[in-house]
Amino acid sequence: MYAKGLKGIIAAETSLSYIDGNKGELIYRGTPVHDLAIQSSFEEVAYFLWYGVMPTKEQLNELTLKMRNDRILPAYIKEILALLPLDLSLMDVLRTVISSLVPGTNFKKPTIEEAIRITAIMPTVIAYRYRQHEGLTPIEPKNEYSHVANYLYMLNGQKPEKSHVGALETYMILTMEHGMNASTFSARVTASTESDLISAVTSAIGTMKGPLHGGAPTGVLDLLDEIEYDLNAEPVIREKLNRNEKLMGFGHRVYRTNDPRAIALKEKLLKMNSDDPWLKLALHVEEIAIHLLEEFKPGRKLMTNVEFYAAAIMRAIKMDPALFTPTFSASRTVGWTAHIIEQANNNTIFRPQSLYVGK
Known about the structure:
Largest sheet: 3 strands, antiparallel
Organism: Salirhabdus euzebyi
CATH architecture of the largest domain: Orthogonal Bundle
Oligomer: single chain
CATH topology of the largest domain: Citrate Synthase, domain 1
Protein name: Citrate synthase
Active site: 252, 307
Pfam family, one: Citrate_synt
InterPro entries: Citrate_synth-like_lrg_a-sub, Citrate_synth-like_sm_a-sub, Citrate_synthase, Citrate_synthase_AS, Citrate_synthase_bac-typ, Citrate_synthase_sf
């Protein structure tokens, strides 16, 4: 059977996450992602995906300590960062730097220890390079901060606001894992050759760089900026739909109803600051857009997706749009590495067939 892009083809078994697009459900190892995002920290959910159980207090402390130690950049990585051209995108920098990490001694068998190391160092690389690119002095990690709080601290050079940490942590938990998406699939294909975990993550980063996978929140910002300028959402959206343009932040290839991640992000934003003008704009645009989408595309159920409120979160915490896809990658590293380990533990090399249509 031929399915373009392998759409609908089951290629692996996983116990990491389950998506029901018709019901708008996403679960990590049997637990609704909404519950995890509201009740747990980044470190707790990462542990849950890697080990299959929620950590005890002692286990969480051990993981936190390891991540704090592993997020420090080795001297040779700083040298690489100093030598890379400044016009190189952050995703290109990530791909290059992560590929230069020294693999663990157990080359052919990915380990959770390596997964922790890559997850811990990813935000440090992003923040270090971002400040370098902006002509600012890079900042070293601070032990007193959690994984997400330290990321914001290293980006901005000041103590992060609690509400900003909470909002970004919610986003990073919600985007940590999402089944057999393009980047996860590329990571598993690489792992299936018995290559190392670093190579598999590098494959995933290269895939995430593509705008069809990791670049949507920037398009949402453009839409909201355009509407904010005109102060009238309906004419702008109606004109776009008349031209048959894609409305960024609405509809999803998997979800045929509400995206559960968008619901959780919206809830977090409302708790942050319900009077924020940017949030009020997002709520207004969501209401108008869903109404018009039903008018123009009846029965399609094109609802708000995670990228819409991800953009609102990023704007609320004043994050540069250049950081959107790298930040997405920093959160998804947990899912990538969990899939790589799962693939290695029950491996068969991926070798699909192709349909010859030439002479």
